[in-house]
Design a protein that fits this description.
The protein is built from 7 helices and 5 strands. By secondary structure, it is mainly α. α3 packs across α6 and α4 packs across α5. The chain starts with 6 loop residues before the first helix and ends in a 20-residue tail after the last helix.
Length: 195
């Protein structure tokens, strides 16, 4: 471990980091050490560099993928994850990190394009509105995914196969997470349900 820091050095670190100390720091007596401060600064610098690289990659990938914008593609992917059964609007909003109004606007746009439809499930609480992708929405998503994957492939071209595999492993590790939300009940034999 590094040498324990005095009060002046701790205040200097706090000024740089904007922190007010860490309880139970790295030293045997609970005090922060120089090694702890260096690791914190390195972690901040690493996070900043990664954030900038992700922003640049995000920009390089573009905003439009075939017939879908990036947000439209996200909505249709969320609907696809539930196996085509649809989601409650509130669950869709939660899954995407949107407000109810934001999810409604996105679904309005997708519905206007013929890519999604709303319905109320027979035998369920009629206050609940569900949304599902239409066959046209599923086809648009497949086309958008091909365009997106091609752009990702092109941007990864400078990497070796080993580097691409490692990047994929790391992205899966930090991006993990499950899904939440109540899956929609059956829409009936037509697959369309009410609107």
């Amino acid at each position: 471990m590094g040498e324990a820091l005095g009060m002046d050095e701790m205040n200097e670190i706090d000024d740089v980091e904007g922190a007010d100390g860490v309880e139970g720091g790295g030293g045997e007596d609970g005090a922060r050490t120089l090694d702890d401060a260096t690791r914190d600064q390195t972690g901040i610098a690493d996070a900043r560099a990664i954030a900038h690289a992700l922003d640049a990659w995000y920009t390089a990938l573009g905003r439009q993928f075939g017939p879908l914008s990036r947000p439209q593609r996200r909505v249709l992917h969320a609907l696809e994850v539930c196996g085509g059964a649809g989601l409650r609007m509130s669950d869709l909003a939660q899954r995407l990190g949107l407000t109810a109004a934001g999810a409604t606007r996105m679904v309005d746009m997708l519905q206007g394009l013929g890519y999604a439809h709303r319905y109320r499930a027979p035998g369920e609480d009629q206050r609940q509105v569900y949304v599902a992708a239409t066959p046209a929405g599923t086809a648009a998503l497949a086309e958008a995914d091909r365009a997106f994957e091609e752009r990702v492939r092109r941007t990864l071209a400078p990497l070796t196969a080993e580097e691409r595999a490692r990047l994929g492993d790391l992205l899966r590790r930090v991006g993990g997470g499950g899904t939440s939300g109540k899956q929609a009940p059956d829409r009936g034999a037509s697959g369309e349900g009410g609107r």
